[in-house]
Amino acid sequence: MDAEYIIQALQLVPHPEGGFYREMYRSDQVLKTPFGDRSVATSIYYLLRSGEYSSWHRIRSDELWFYHAGVPLCLNYLDETGSQRGILLGAGLTDGVHPYYCLPRGTWFGAIPSQDGSFSLVSCVVAPGFDFADFELAESGVFPQISQELL
């Protein structure tokens, strides 16, 4: 199975931050938040091919990441001191690889496949649910380059 097959099979479309996605779930239950009404939760499939990355961005909700296929995904984020950090999202439970990870709301983050020549397929659950009004894409060059290495 390769990235192009998965993109077609899951009917993924380009995402503004990079890569491909498709919303798979949006709760019909609604919460009132300081930013407006939001679904209780949403979920997407998200795929990055070799050479692609998710640009630095942040959202106003917690984002839960789950690994599915391909090479581990390196999630880059800025910690509370502003230092760049990374974790590997993957199937193995060795060498610091995690099958699941939560990025707290307001965290600046991006992602890149950990190895060249492959892809990473994950899913993301956002709670309260995702709304593009809650999405902030960083200006180019403001943050360090997204890295395949753990930092």
Overview of the molecule:
With 151 residues, this protein is mainly beta. Helices cover 5% and strands 50% of the residues. The protein has one helix and 14 strands, in the order H-E-E-E-E-E-E-E-E-E-E-E-E-E-E. It has one helix spanning 3-9, and strands at residues 13-14, 20-26, 30-33, 36-39, 42-49, 54-59, 62-70, 73-78, 84-89, 97-98, 100-103, 109-113, 119-127, 135-137. The strands form three sheets. A six-stranded antiparallel sheet has the order 1-2-5-13-7-11, with helices on one face. Strand 1 and strand 2 form a beta hairpin. The radius of gyration is 15 Å and the shape is globular. The N and C termini lie far apart (30 Å). The relative contact order is 0.27.
Total of helices = 1
The largest sheet is: 6 strands, antiparallel
Overall radius of gyration: 15 Å
List segments where confidence is low: pLDDT < 50 over at least 5 consecutive residues: none
Helix percentage range: under 10%
Class by SSE composition: mainly beta
Number of separate strands: 14
- Shape label: globular
Overall mean confidence score, pLDDT: 94
- SSE run: HEEEEEEEEEEEEEE
Strand content: over 45%
End-to-end separation: 30 Å
Strand order of the largest sheet: 1-2-5-13-7-11
